[in-house]
Design a protein that fits this description.
With 306 residues, the protein is an alpha/beta fold. Helix content is 37%, strand content 16%. Strands 3-1-2-4-5-6-7-8-9-10 form a 10-stranded mixed β-sheet. The longest helix is centred in the N-terminal third of the chain and has 19 residues. The protein starts with 5 loop residues before the first helix and ends with a strand.
Length: 306
């Protein structure tokens, strides 16, 4: 692992902020490229204007071991999302935009307060629509001495050009890989091009690791009931493309919520048999780096190595 170089990060932030601000209005920060004039108050596809909006800044101990460590991750939950997942378990934040408007200075203050009490990483949760304000706050934190690895936790629906712009800034990429089926992406995420952009984005993240501009990529796969073949296809693609270059996190904590409580496909929990089937399939493919969850734990924790 390279030593933490705050000045290099600050220089990189200064270099990319002008382009990211330009992409903010009209907005083309994600694959939807909705062209909303967000700085003028128009709402984008994500439901956000140009003002920074944050649901919470909280310490989490239950993330994957490289993220939580022993002292936990400071997770910034940004309001809004560029996906509209029918089963989103954080739907009040992602779809109803629960949160509070903050200035970058106010957000930086909240992060620094947590950091001074000790933490292992700083995590951004769904930051893409608000990447400009996030970077402005991060720049202020770096100037105050913050030295935590930065985790970019995203839904996997990312523009690979934006991924490239964050080279040397993000340490750990934490994308979801939700589906390999465009029809399912259209139904569940309202994005039939999800598999296309997801694969390009994850490949871009891995390239950043290969070039020394990031530390690691941890791919999360939330297993859904009845979607075993989609999971198999997704794992086959991940293994065939990256092998053990990536770390894999197979998650079993799905439960019907938001728009899926009475859904024919998603209106039940994942079964333990389904979960074990996909764990065995991942192991048979050759995955050795990653984690699975204890199915018996109500909250899906703790994590165990593959």
């Amino acid at each position: 692992m390279k030593p933490f170089d705050a000045q290099r990060r600050l220089s990189r932030i200064e270099a990319v902020l002008p382009e990211l601000r330009q992409r903010l209005d009209p907005c083309c920060l994600c694959p939807r490229c909705c062209s909303a004039h967000r700085l003028g108050g128009e709402l984008g596809e994500c439901g956000l204007d140009g003002v920074l909006r944050v649901a919470s800044v909280a310490r989490h101990l239950g993330e994957e071991p490289p993220i939580s460590g022993e002292t936990g991750a400071i997770n910034v939950f940004f309001s809004g999302c560029n996906l509209h997942c029918l089963h989103c378990q954080n739907w009040p934040i992602s779809q109803l935009h629960v949160g509070k408007q903050l200035t970058p200075e106010e957000l930086a203050g909240r992060i620094l307060k947590k950091w001074r009490k000790g933490a292992h990483t700083l995590g951004w949760v769904t930051p893409t629509p608000q990447i400009v304000g996030a970077l402005e706050a991060y720049r202020l934190c770096l100037n105050e001495g913050l030295d935590l690895p930065l985790v970019h936790n995203n839904g996997g629906y990312e523009d690979p050009e934006i991924v490239d712009l964050l080279a040397g800034i993000v340490d750990i990429w934490l994308p979801d890989v939700k589906t390999s089926d465009s029809a399912w992406g259209r139904k569940v995420q309202q994005a039939d091009d999800y598999p296309e952009y997801n694969r390009k984005a994850v490949a871009g993240m891995v390239r950043l690791v290969e070039s020394g501009n990031a530390q690691s990529v941890i791919v999360r796969r939330l297993l859904l009931p009845g979607r075993l073949e989609d999971s198999r296809q997704t794992l086959e693609w991940l293994w065939g493309s990256f092998g053990n270059q990536i770390q894999l996190s197979l998650m079993c904590q799905y439960f019907p919520t938001y728009q899926t409580e009475n859904d024919f496909d998603l209106g039940r929990k994942l079964s333990e048999e389904e979960y074990n089937t996909i764990i065995e399939y991942a192991q048979d493919l050759g995955f050795e780096r990653g984690w699975v969850q204890n199915f018996e734990e109500e909250n899906g924790l703790p994590l165990h190595c593959l």
